[in-house]
Specification:
Helices cover about 20% and strands about 40% of the residues. It has four helices and 16 strands. The chain has helices at about 15-25, 45-55, 115, 190-210; strands at about 5, 10, 30-35, 40-45, 65, 70-80, 85-90, 100-110, 120-125, 130-135, 145, 155, 170, 175-180, 215, 225-230. Strands 1-5-6-7-3-4-2 form a seven-stranded mixed β-sheet. Strands 11-8-10-13 form a four-stranded mixed β-sheet, with no helix packed on it. A hairpin with a 6-residue loop joins strand 6 and strand 7. Keywords: Ribonucleoprotein, Ribosomal protein, RNA-binding, rRNA-binding. It comes from Sphingomonas albertensis.
Amino acid sequence: MSDQLTLAAETRDRVGKGASRALRRDGRVPAVIYGLNKEPTSVHLEEKALMKALMTGHFMNSVVMVNGVRTLPKDVSFHPVTDRPIHVDFLRIGAHSTVTVAVPVVFTDEDDAPGIKKGKGVLNITRHEIELVVDASDIPSEITISLSGLEIGDSIHISDVKLPKGAVPAIDDRDFAIATIVPPTVPTVEDEILEAEVAEAQAAEAASDEEPVVEPNDDDNHDDKITPQKKD
């Protein structure tokens, strides 16, 4: 089960771009709490505390208590240059609300997969997360899938995965694939020619960047002028 997180917040008296910029300059992050047929509440959070919560790796599928209000993070906006969080949306939920969350997938027992260990196959992951519909009080932190016994060409579908009790896939109209063991990539002649051309171009570029060697003239006078001569 995913851990419950707690964040302190203060109510925002002013909204708008100017007010939001002022908050961010003071190390705060604007946020809004909505849902449960109540009016949205504008708040702001301490950026350091929010970053600590984000660094847990399971912020988006954790219940977050914001000033005593049970919420589920729905969206975090980041600055395109600095990657600092600039806004957060929280959804109010009840203690046993049914919620849809994206739960990360973790693969285990790779050494016990003949297709990978002996066949040198590659695990091709098509879904790093699975959207599940679960009770808000029982959100899983991750879904573990064993690769034991899998051969090259074998696929893992959602029907092959044992989900936590009470959890069902959000996509229920097809048996979607999560990962496949694919054959190892064999370099072609075209790949080798391309690699040789790239190496030759890089060598030529490196040679052109070399500094010329400075050597004195060969005459016998004492007022030799120094002229740059390229290395052979």
